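@channel sequence for tomorrow's demo:
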Amino acid sequence: MKQHLSNRLSKKLVQHLAIGEPYVLRDLADLMEMDIAATLRKGVLTRTGENAIVLLINLKKADNATQYVDSIENDVLHWEGQLVNRFVENRMKTGEYEFFIFVRDITKTPFTYYGRAIPIATKYFAPGTPCQSRFSLYEYAQSQAYQTVIPETYNVEPPYAGRTSRLQLVEQRTVQQQYRRQALQLWNNRCAVIGIEQPKILIASHIKPWRVAEPEERIDPKNSLILSPLYDKLFDLGIISFTPSDGAIKLSEQLSENEYDLLGIDTNKKLSMIPTGTEAYLTYHTNYIFNFSPLEEIGLTLLTS
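structure tokens (generated this afternoon):
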């Protein structure tokens, strides 16, 4: 039977919190209606029967603390869960909980509120090794009003007359079209895996995803693979990856051997080449995308609506 959760505390947090503002542990204890002693040395705050989960992120851990590795890239939070307890990971799957993110660089300083987040994917490990999860900091991203910039050397007409700057603001579509042309040229207009030469069906796939990439990485053709639709989808979902050193395909545990056989994918596949500069992007994909299980279609819908 599905548990009925109250959203009273979630509404209270939304009403009282402001993105980018500092909060001390006492503030959070009061908002969560908890005794301050119950919040000490905790990375997760929650109340039974409520759908609010507060994640307290310390980017730099104290020497005597468990050295979980957490980081933020643009609007994506990389978060490691507890060594044994899967409290947060189990609740991510349900789609019933609201996640409120607080981050600080150094312990014993105020936390900065990053807004609510949506879990994107998780890589699971046996107890004793923390699971690794990715969250979309969608409210933080909206508050930052990110803009896309490209270097002047790309010779794109400035969108506003009279603007002279080494960096020009352009529409995302223009950037993506130029990126695709250069990626196709780099990969000789062929799928990097199966070699099919039909640009009209090939996809220029970012190796390090757009949402976490720096502006210059978003338009770098070395951060690309030209793939057929099937391989692009599997690569984007982290179901496959490629070894940075030799381009050999890596198959994740998300599909069975039989399912890979039905798709015509086996361990003999590999990239046709590894352009200079692409190895670092493949290393990122292997470490942060490969074998992460996507979570919550509802979350993905929110991110694209």
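heads up for whoever presents: The first strand starts at residue 22 and ends at 23.
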